[in-house]
């Protein structure tokens, strides 16, 4: 990278943990154009606690100069990758284990640093911000609610697109397949606190524990990350407020 190339490093999310110092000193301190493609980000099922890629957002977010992205599907992953190649900065793109959603691959302009409003409802009382694999879950949860909801595909964990957090909503919700401590929801909470925005915030993600092995469906339920669990919690908090 220092010699003018743009290396692409494809590696499991859990294995990049071993290279924290190299990412910080050798790449980000020098602001070099290295692209980290973090496979198996999130829960990986039967491979268990050693292989769940749930910490990358939290530990990478503290490093200056790095951009952290998460696509909602395989088409957006493609767009993010080509956009990253055009940049001259450190970039990490995290995506889950397994097959894509089966969406059509099309050329579409990707605006760097911007989130995407994927579900807009008139008079929305709740704004749901979802990251990567949780965007489809957020869409399913929104369908289960009997009040208007906006769903935002965050796309960027860093830099955080704060524009949508300035909207007039009664409740904000973040959903991520990653550690809550220091993750995307934490970034949202920091922004709201710094701007003295009083809108209540619910954060869904992986709590402060190591997650056992099991099927992906089983683990999502254990972590409270199914559409039904999310919708139920949102409805309860909304009624309380």
Order of helices and strands: EHHEHEHEEEHEEEHEHH
Q: Considering DSSP H and I runs of 4 or more, what fraction of the residues is helical? A: 25-40%
Q: How many angstroms does the end-to-end distance come to?
A: 51 Å
How many alpha or pi helices? 8
* Mean pLDDT over the full residue set: 95
User: What structural class do helix, strand and pairing data support?
Assistant: alpha/beta
Report the biggest beta sheet as strand number plus sense, adding barrel if it closes. 5 strands, mixed
Radius of gyration: 17 Å
The coarse overall form would be globular
Structure keywords:
alpha/beta; five-stranded mixed β-sheet; 8 helices
Structure characterization notes:
- With about 240 residues, the chain is α/β, with parallel strands linked by helices.
- The chain is about 30% helix and about 20% strand.
- It is built from eight helices and ten strands.
- The protein has helices spanning about 15, 20-30, 55-60, 75-85, 135-145, 185-195, 215-220, 225-240, and strands spanning about 10, 35-40, 65-70, 90-95, 115-120, 125-130, 150-155, 155-160, 170-180, 200-205.
- Strands 1-2-4-3-8 form a five-stranded mixed sheet. The protein has a five-stranded mixed sheet with strand order 5-7-6-9-10, with helices on both faces.
- α5 packs across α8.
- The longest helix is centred in the C-terminal third of the chain and has 14 residues, at about 225-240.
- It is globular, with a radius of gyration of 17 Å.
- The mean pLDDT is about 95.
